[in-house]
Amino acid sequence: AQSVTQPDIHITVSEGASLELRCNYSYGATPYLFWYVQSPGQGLQLLLKYFSGDTLVQGIKGFEAEFKRSQSSFNLRKPSVHWSDAAEYFCAVGSTGGGNKLTFGTGTQLKVEL
Amino acid sequence: EAGVAQSPRYKIIEKRQSVAFWCNPISGHATLYWYQQILGQGPKLLIQFQNNGVVDDSQLPKDRFSAERLKGVDSTLKIQPAKLEDSAVYLCASSLGRGRVNTEAFFGQGTRLTVV
Questions:
Q1: What number is the average pLDDT over the span B32-51?
Q2: Bridge partner list, A32
């Protein structure tokens, strides 16, 4: 069964500092990987996705993530955080056998200090 | 392009009452998902439709939850009777469909259900 672990429940960074959110997955084959962001009272917005190819993927809002098969990781990074990035971030793994079922991690709540 | 539409946005009911949520996916999207997101947790898949057929409902509590997608477009999710632990945000999502690689799921804003 596929699963996702986000080890950090809460993270606080200062505006302008760099950010890395951790994500580890468990899946029997090459996974589809996603990062979503959720602002209060809103649905999930896709930041970026990995299906195949280049292991460093670029997303919206200046985010990037790197797929590392050897570590079963897909960490999200941003070089300089803005106050508007404060939100909850979810990593998800999608099944590749058809159906595209997503399994989410428990999320990381990001707080940005001004 | 219009996104995934859900209604209502908020609902408060008493336990043992029934409630229904509605979802209209993005036009042309064959796959529709209902997720349950309990406070402090990630979304959990309840049911997945491909057109009007059920692909996966393994985590749907079938004694109280039901869902349908007539004509392969709109969908409704019903809870009857509701329990306190059903308090959550119910998210609807849609994607192009099975067998379509490199597809992603687009989410609606969700319905926040409070059972008192």
A1: 94
A2: A94
